[in-house]
Description:
This protein has a single domain, classed as Spore Coat Polysaccharide Biosynthesis Protein SpsA, Chain A. The protein contains 10 helices and 13 strands. The chain has helices spanning 37-47, 62-67, 72-80, 109-114, 117-120, 140-151, 211-216, 229-234, 257-268, 275-285; strands at residues 6-10, 31-32, 35-36, 52-57, 98-102, 125-128, 132-135, 154-160, 170-178, 181-189, 200-208, 242-245, 250-253. A hairpin with a 2-residue loop joins strand 2 (31-32) and strand 3 (35-36). Bound molecules: 1-O-phosphono-alpha-D-glucopyranose. The site of 1-O-phosphono-alpha-D-glucopyranose (G1P) has 13 residues, from strand 11 and helix 8. 1-O-phosphono-alpha-D-glucopyranose binds at residues 109, 129, 132, 169-170, 189, 201-204, 229-230, 255.
Amino acid sequence: xxxxxxxxxxxxxxxxxxxxxxxxxxxxxxxxxxxxxxxxxxxxxxxxxxxxxxxxxxxxxxxxxxxxxxxxxxxxxxxxxxxxxxxxxxxxxxxxxxxxxxxxxxxxxxxxxxxxxxxxxxxxxxxxxxxxxxxxxxxxxxxxxxxxxxxxxxxxxxxxxxxxxxxxxxxxxxxxxxxxxxxxxxxxxxxxxxxxxxxxxxxxxxxxxxxxxxxxxxxxxxxxxxxxxxxxxxxxxxxxxxxxxxxxxxxxxxxxxxxxxxxxxxxxxxxxxxxxxxxxxxxxxx
Length: 286
Ligand code: G1P
């Protein structure tokens, strides 16, 4: 079984739900406490053993690559002032660890992943959607890589979602269950609550086999007129092992304003440098 060494980060989205904040800044640079969403996702990937990060970006998104580059002037000034550089931990990646390709048109998540096909090549790869901020020890992707080591094939992260919210997710038809692993018998993108085969929704973490790229080549349109990753994955069911894994991690949906504000609070309340003052303030405004 080939090791999962590469991860695709679809980061070309316009972030219209966060306007005006995202007018001139990528939504993945929105900050939870003191680091941007993209950094949480990249740190999670590195912890899981990923060596090559592939950003699928778009126009106006160069801040994402800059964030993981060496900031030569900044470091020189900080050194000159005797300031420690540990605030930059997690942003200085080994040379060549980030590659980027552009998704020229917003044709859907499946299309974004397909844009990375030449860099992914013929090996299994992960996909991380930075909007889903996952907090766990070990991290979400590390838990999925561990499951992958046991069953191989394709793995999606799943979570029970409220019935009335199925139309916001890819939903699985569950098969046999073994602890945290559930066999995936079917997959449908954003079904209505009446049509949903279960309430197990796909969260933004995937381990996929390279064959999904050949399916995406067909550029078939699905829900919302977009080229859906869910539809392409569904075509692999039966031909390759396919499982959903329920991870032991907390999920914050940072694609949504409330989820984003909650994430800031939840993560700040776990930080020794911020929590005491924040708790006092929350008590004060009660
Ligand atoms: C995408 C996927 C969907 C998945 C979701 C997880 O949807 O298409 O299957 O459940 O991410 O966050 P989006 O949130 O981009 O509409």
